[in-house]
Design a protein that fits this description.
By secondary structure, the chain is an alpha+beta fold. It is built from three helices and five strands; from the N terminus they run αααβββββ. Strand 3 and strand 4 form a beta hairpin.
Length: 143
């Protein structure tokens, strides 16, 4: 005659299943914790801190210096520039002036840092949307 243990968790079959379930639950919880805490979304960081005018200017300035050739401006720095434009309730406007006279207007969303770029050529009276960037990619990492 076989004697069964009083506690069903002490049964060898249940022990293996219980250990597997505990391992699976703990592993799942650790993976979820790792994904949530280590991979913070840049948009979430921007929303928490809010985008300031200084952040918008710095990021657009960094973008312009990385994307456009500034060597022509070494002899005459006033040929190219980055300046702050108007501020509305929802966005900042930062303006890049090229040595050709073309302007690129950067409209930076205050809540998330997404920026739409509109290029205008005043002499031809032409405006065109040229793309979008996330300014969080162009802010200096401060520690």
């Amino acid at each position: 005659m076989r004697v069964l243990p009083k506690n069903r968790y002490l049964c060898p079959k249940n022990n293996i299943l219980l250990l597997f379930m505990k391992g699976f639950i703990i592993s799942s919880a650790l993976i979820a914790l790792l994904l949530c805490s280590c991979h913070r979304n840049k948009a979430d960081l921007a929303q928490q801190a809010g985008i300031t005018a200084e952040m918008a200017y710095e990021a657009v300035n960094n973008y312009c210096h990385s994307e456009y050739d500034w060597s022509i401006a070494t002899e005459n720095p006033s040929m190219m520039s980055v300046t702050m434009g108007e501020e509305t309730e929802n966005e900042y406007k930062v303006i890049f002036r090229s040595y050709t006279g073309a302007l690129v207007n950067f409209y930076v969303d205050k809540s998330n840092g997404m920026t739409r770029m509109v290029e205008s050529v005043p002499t031809l009276d032409v405006d065109s949307v040229v793309g979008t960037i996330d300014i969080m990619d162009y802010l200096e990492k401060k520690e």
